[in-house]
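Troubleshooting log. The previous structure file for this entry was overwritten by mistake, so regenerating from the original sequence record. Sequence copied from the archived sheet and checked twice against the printout by T.R.
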Amino acid sequence: MNSNSDSSSDLKNLFEGCILGVAIGDALGMPAEGMRIEEIRETYGYIEDFHPSPLGDLNTGEWTDDTEQMIILAESIIDRIYLDPEDFAAKLMSWAENAFKIRTGPTTRQALRNLLRGAPWDKAGVDSATCGAAMRVAPIGLVYHFNLDLVDRYAAISASVTHRNYSAIAGAVAVATAISCLVSDFSDDEMLLEVVSRTKKYDKLMSEKIEYSKEIKDRELEYAVEKLGNSIMTWDVVPMAFYCFFSSNDFSDAVKKGANVGGDTDSIAAIAGGISGAKFGEKAIPNNWKRRVKDSSYLFEIAELLYETHKKIVTLSP
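Regenerated output below.
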């Protein structure tokens, strides 16, 4: 394993790939959210490009609260350099009015209500295992990838602002760790060992499902759904996203699989996109998607600012 920290153009490419990857996966999976695989096949065949929401609330290439929350976390890290959960909570509260108008998950909605009623950040979170913490955690995996213990701790703290649940925390730690390992040039096997080891502390079953996701990487989507699940719960979403990553040879295949597995397709594809983007980089993402995804230029800007924040931290570190 060789750190990419000194190879600036390569590392920036991976930061951009990860951030764009989350948004593109989210936008690709958005139209099929809540559908069964059979319904997706009947409606779209096999999703290979952006589509508008059948509910009429989102247009082609637009993303959901998954990407919205990732951006909010990124903006907080950029502003504060280190994770400041109080600032992150404040930024979530500023977003709350919009959050209640869109498809924000039930756990985050309740946590936002708690924050708005005056609960401190470390008391506002809800004991719920939904996947909101895992879907937004990518910036932590990127900026602090030089210190996996710090990534572990920050992922857990960021999760607890809305999700005070060990499974939800485990999912955030798993995704952040995977991204950190991949931008540090770990092999897939090395990354998996680190992810399983760190996830096991919070949720042993989830760590086993993530490990199993690689074992079944050559099986079809339907088999993976049967074995791993595709609900909104973190113990389904995160292992399924890892399956999409491990079973694919490139970025496009990973996010397409995430969009086509049924269930919580936007979150599954978003996480698969973030992990795959951290491995393959921005240059591996089709230009057509990069051009058409919502707020593409701002996503590039966020990635660059996260990269600059990472460099600043490395410079300040003893």
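The radius of gyration is 17 Å. Archived copy saved in two places this time.
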